Amino acid sequence: PLLHHPFSPSPADTTFSTTTSRASNTQLSARKGPNEQASDGSGDVRQLLGVKGASETQEKWKIRLQLTKPVTWIPLVWGVMCGAAASGNYHWMWNPFDVNDRDVLLGATDALKGFVAMILAGPFLTGYTQTINDWYDREIDAINEPYRPIPSGAISEGEVIAQIWALLLGGLGIAYGLDVWAEHEFPTVLALSIFGSFISYIYSAPPLKLKQNGWAGNYALGCSYISLPWWCGQAVFGELDRPVYFILPILYSIAGLGIAIVNDFKSIEGDRELGLQSLPVAFGIDGAKWICAGSVTITQLCVAAYLYSIGEPTYAAVLAGLILPQMYFQATLLLPDPVANDVKYQASAQPFLVFGILATALCVGHHDWGVMA
Fold it and tell me: How far is it between the farthest Cα atoms of the chain?
């Protein structure tokens, strides 16, 4: 028998073969309608960011960039920054709050090191994740978004596969370079990158395809967007030598699970047709919206309580203050209608979540741990 390329269609995927897919895609496209380009003139920008309302293009570099969904790089870049803050060892070029932290050369070196770590987490490994997800999502995209690059035929299979390999191998090369730069005895950043890339693969690819299971898929997504970049940033500038450095990002990944559920509401039709057990499909919209709100709020309250317990009441109060507006937006947007308000809720509530993560990281970096874990 012929050997299959790891990113080539498996025998189980051959329903997406030429004759069948062309007929079904035509019917689905007609039912879902063409891509509605944004009427505010932002179509070209939306295309480059990889979001809905994008204009169409034939330029391959734009299509390749669209596949990496640059808008999704932001949480990973933020996570790296939070990890650097949690290390307590990131130096400014001129710190206005600390006269002992004004070494311009050391600050410039750390800034460059942090920038490279962000390039690793964002364009390379998130780009890899998004491209491979689009590759294995081509069937569901034919239902929900038939105008996307792969189901529409705007980019060939060979070009997509080449992009996946280039981003993966390039990212692992950068990760190893960061380990050398940080003088790690064990290549921590490379190990985290390999693990994260593996999670990305099994999230999207059969036979495991974690995204078919709402719990496993959404937690994998939350971990990839919060814990892994945090650990990467902290490993570049410090050590992962205390249990708390793992526990807090993992808790925030549970909150990330809730954020991932919000993204599933808009795809419930296609998920149901293809038999994917996303949480909105498994529990219904009403059940899933409460799981979403609970996972986001309760985990953050637990983190705030922990910060208070270690003698950091100011940081605990700041975090509690950032949780309150999230609860308000849950009550006014998410719970009344999560399908209609998914984007509005994300735009309103998520900034408070991500600043809460940063506040927690700053607390971890500035806390005097002494003999505490």
Answer: 69
